[in-house]
C-alpha cells in the first residue's frame, strides 16, 4: 500500500480516472495536449511525448502532456506551463482587436472548442494570467454575439431580403469560423442530468437558441398583427 502511494504509475492512473469522471466522452474527444517544459529529468516517461528517448529531459521545451496529467506536473513544480498556441499573444491580440474576424473554430482540434478548452487552460493558470485569459474569452464571446444573432435571423428568414443578400459572403465567412459552443445543435436535459441513452446533453448552441428566439419573436409579432 505504501509503495502504491508513492508510485508514479499509481498517481497517473488516479489522475486519469478522476479526469474521466468529471468529463464525458464527447468532451474527452476534443481535449488538446498541454505544452510544458520539464524542470527535472523524469526516467521512463519518454512515451508521454511520443519521444524516441526513453526519458523526459529537463528543460526540454514543447513536451506534450495529456491535460489530465498537467495539473500534477505543474503544481508540484516538476514542469512549467507554456501557453497553448490557440491562446498565445498573437491570437489574443487578434480577438481583442476584432473578435468577429478570427476563425476561432479552427484553432482547437477538429471540433473547434476554443471557449471550452480556454476555460480548462484558465483553470491551470494562476492570477493575473488566469483573469486576463478569462476576460479575453468573455469579451470575445460578447463581441461575436451580435453577428451570431444576425446569422440566426438570416437562417430563420426574419432578416430583410436586402440584408440577407448583402450579407451572404460576410455571413458565410463568419459561420465557417464558429466555435462548437456557437454552432452545434444539442438538446437540453430539463432535469440537469446527462442522459447517456437517449442522446440528451446539457449543452445547447447559442446559434440554435438564437434561431429559436427569432422564430418565437416572429410568430408573436405575426399573431399580434393579426389580432389588431
From TrEMBL:
Protein name, UniProt field: DNA replication complex GINS protein PSF3
Stretches for region Disordered: 161-184
UniProt key word Lyase: no
Domain DNA replication complex GINS protein PSF3 N-terminal: start-end pairs: 32-72
Alphabetically ordered keywords of this record: DNA replication, Nucleus
Source organism of this protein record: Serendipita indica (strain DSM 11827) (Root endophyte fungus)
Database matches in Pfam families: PSF3_N
Assembly notes: Component of the GINS complex.
